[in-house]
Amino acid sequence: MQQLTHRFVSNEQLTSFIDRHRLRNERGMVQVASGVNEERIAQILKRLMRLLPEFSIIGSSTCGEIVQGQCYSNSVALQFCLFNKGTEVVVTPLDEMTTQERELNLSFLSGASPKVAIIYVNAFSVNPDTVIEHLSAANPGCCVAGGVAADNGQFQSAYTIAGDRILKAGSVCAFLYGENLHFSVDSYQGWRPIGKTFTVTKAAGNHVYELDRKPILTVYQEYMGEHIAEQFPRNVIEFPLMIRRRECFVLRAPIGYTHCQSGIKYAGTVKEGDKVSFSFADVSAILASTPEFEPQPNVCTLTFACAARRSFLRGRMSEEVERVAAKTSAIGGFFYGEFSTIEGKTELLNLSTTVLQLSEEPLKRSCKKTTQQSLPNSTQALANLASKASLEHEELLFSLQQHQRALSKSSIISVTNSMGVITYVNKKFEQVSGYGANELIGNTHSVIRHPKMKDRVFQQLWRTITAKKRWQGLLRNRRKDGSSYYVKTVIYPITDASGEIKEFVSIRNDVTDIVTARKAIQKHNIDTLTQLPNRAKLSRDLERTPVDCVAILDVKNFKVLNDYWGVNHGDFIIKAVAERLRSCCMNYSLKVYHINGAVFALRPLKPISTEAFRSQVLRIKDALELSDIVIDEHHHEINFSIGIGASSKRALAYAESAAIEAKNEHFITSIIIKTEDAQANNFYFWLEEVRLALQEERVLPYFQEVATVAENPLPNKYEALARIQLRNGEVVSPGVFLNYLKKTRYYPQLTRLMVGFAVRQSILSRCPISVNLASQDILNRETVNYITDALQGNPEAKIIFEMTETESIKDFNAMNRFIHHIRSFGAKVAIDDFGSGYSNFVYLVEMKPDYIKIDGSIIKSICTNKNSLHVARSIVDLARGLNIKTIAEFVCDRETLVTLTEIGIDYAQGYFIAEPKAEITR
């Protein structure tokens, strides 16, 4: 391929140029950039057709011409591309082609598709975006470049060229074919948004009528000045609209008014709903970002630049043109928009410069970045200042609007004046209270005050808010029908610029269900069989008192006794032991708890040394074992395994661990003490085991079935459970090492590994798989990113994330963001261990889970403890009202399963249902 360029001066010089280069017998394509009137260009075209019958001619009118790095006006630039290796070109007016002609032209050369399309569109008669959409649809994979015909800045009419024809409407295109044809397209912009972001609220094609529901002409007058109509669009073309399209920004320059004079016509489509802003460019930044093209042999280079870009850069446009076109001997012109194929997608650009290079040999990258630096200047600083201020304002406004909508939908809101008279209530207030806004506005909140609320509460409330401080608390209100409801309330005083209180804003959340359920949970603190406080009560007491010691007493061989003599006989023994313990502990300032079965706990009522506590526990043990328990004349010798835990935060966990070891020791020892210092050895042992298991891929996923129990069968699910194969071959569950692991960097690795196992198994088995997450997982950015990638990359996976409650959730904002994010990928959320603490019911409000897993301590005693049954039924009823599915864990026998079925549980999980397995078989 060979390139020759010529700036037309006269017919004689054109003829001499053609003869000198012996073009009459060559074949190829002529590109025409014309700044002259139709009559003059018609003469030139006829001469070209007569002298060069084997050449195809295409072009358009321009707003300036480019010839070998020089800018001209009212001139004619000609480029002659000579094809040497079989490249073919078809030039045709697209709008005049019949379907048959289009199919013929686009499939000639044995069905080949065009590789490159050079197109010129008259935007005064047709929407350029519509043209390239049709062109791209008909020719997928074809590279498109070209321009929107211009008319020397008059914005009245333009023309395109096909052969010796001058077209006043429509578009023309040159399709290039050839196995040896190579091409590259580069585009350069440099504009950036400035000021407010608008939403296009009324538009059709490339006509825009409204921004943010305001007439667009009004918007231009407000932001550009009252006198823009005098020279529109020349006086605003340097500030085009910027639209975000996928990952790039697209500019749209105005080219005139619509026919009705109520809108603005742009050089490209603007759609309703587009987010747009005015844009601005810094001259030095644009020029600094423009690369310099180096010459290449046998390459034809075409330049398509925007008229508005030339207007903006003014005299410095020649600097950019020289870098792009001087060394490449390129020709081109200035247009009202440019076409460029960016990452396989053809876009209509404005205020850009596009460079198309063609060759019949492989192209090498021939441009290099300039070394010129863009120095800061006052214009740049003002643009940054305006953009930053506008962005901050929009972000703040958007955030406030989001908060207002969220609060209005989920919370009960009212506003009063400084005297406490209601001036505003939202719909939620009306719905919950039963009063209409007209009944509330003008009154005080005494209209909903419940008579059982103490006067001192409101006196303290009023003292707080009139002191310009926030007040929060729980209030009991009365509805219009006389029924009561509870609200968690926060009242904020709002002051004016002088600091005087102007009004009060009250935000309430209806927590009636939570308060009701909490009362039921409080009854669960006492064990029905022994009338002793239970394990849940022990956990809370340990949190509230500065006691570092706990003892666990387990009756040895109680299971054998219970199996032989029966459950009723066993219950008598448990009650007898409870009475003896209660009596003994009165002498030592100890409190006794019934944990489960024949397991009891002792807690000092005040701080005591570990050794002194051990001595007291041993004396109690000796006293209990001194005499038999007699039931129905049967004597039962009672012995205990004892574990003592000494820790400021984990005394109960250490005690339970020690008790298990003591029980396993049988008669070797009856008491084991675990302290934080002793646990350090275990910590390092398990740290090394887990580290090597992760490194050597000895972490194994097990899956336990979660079976449907509901009348209307639901699809079964499985829970993913981590197991580690130790170096000696033993497989252990995380209960022995997880508490140690959570303090190390290996815990997030284990979580991510289990998530990956769950995703793969869900796809393989086509079953929902649940996987446990702790609050620290949700705060780990790498873990959250891993979860996001796993869900996004495997949309067919059905994953349920169980939020464990062994550690309270403190950052509900992070939790809610995470839950909203994973739900967008189809994942679901469950609350684990529900009923083990007061905070559960707050979780229902904050997390809105899909599933509740009722704590095993409730389920295990549901057949023997009426309180457990009542609590479980309350939780199921509450969940059903909130449209949440319930899961019972630790289902270990048929009697428990039958009871759960009767109260309406949805799913059951436990060893009676299925043991954890390494594979899912269906």
UniProtKB/TrEMBL annotation:
SMART domains: EAL, FIST, FIST_C, GGDEF, PAC. Residues 683-922 form the EAL domain. Gene3D superfamilies: 3.30.70.270, EAL domain, PAS domain. Residues 469-523 form the PAC domain. Residues 413-468 form the PAS domain. InterPro entries: Cyclic-di-GMP_PDE-like, EAL_dom, EAL_sf, FIST_C, FIST_domain_N, GGDEF_dom, Nucleotide_cyclase, PAC. NCBIfam families: sensory_box (TIGR00229). This is Diguanylate cyclase. It comes from Idiomarina piscisalsi.
